[in-house]
Amino acid sequence: MSSRDLILARVRRAIADVPRDDTPYEQAFERGYLREHGDRSVARTVDLLAENLADYRALVHRCTAGELAATIARLLAGRGAASVVVPAGLDPRWLAATEVTRVPDRAADTPAELDRVDSVVTACAVAIAETGTIVLDGGPDQGRRRITLVPDHHICVVRVPGQVVSSVPQGLERVDPARPLTWISGPSATSDIELDRVEGVHGPRTLEVVLVSGE
Hints:
By secondary structure, the protein is of the alpha/beta class. 23% of the residues lie in helices and 24% in strands.
């Protein structure tokens, strides 16, 4: 008997006494929890997002839509980036103010090739203020998951206020669970048993979030 057969047999035994007309799963428990904590204005929700992103050691920038290209160019120059991965559906105007070499998001690229690229610029699917979390869903302006995990510098653009929600339940309503979701709370980091923090272990060492208004 395979491991799969053993696991399925245990599942069958565990649910053997459950009647077929039992209460559906989605109705089995009271879900009266708060959808968000507090009564914040839109501006305060965006401020909370910025605060929590910074608390996770992300670098937060604010600009208008007209300033976005210059802001991204400044961040790439400040990093000394010579190359940047560009998702296929990224608005070309976002990179109009920089001469950095564009590297298209290609299925054929190997991790080693992506590791030689300095930065990546993407949009996002939604941003959650209460947890300081950016969610990517692999959309055309975000690209494949790996392009936001291998390069050491990620610039992520969040449209304000349209892509900002207060809570995780509200964020879940905005995304499709069948898509490849990546939930990002600050730069990649881990701590050992002595709580020494090391960044850049499972993803970019530097996360810069641009909150752009007027898009």
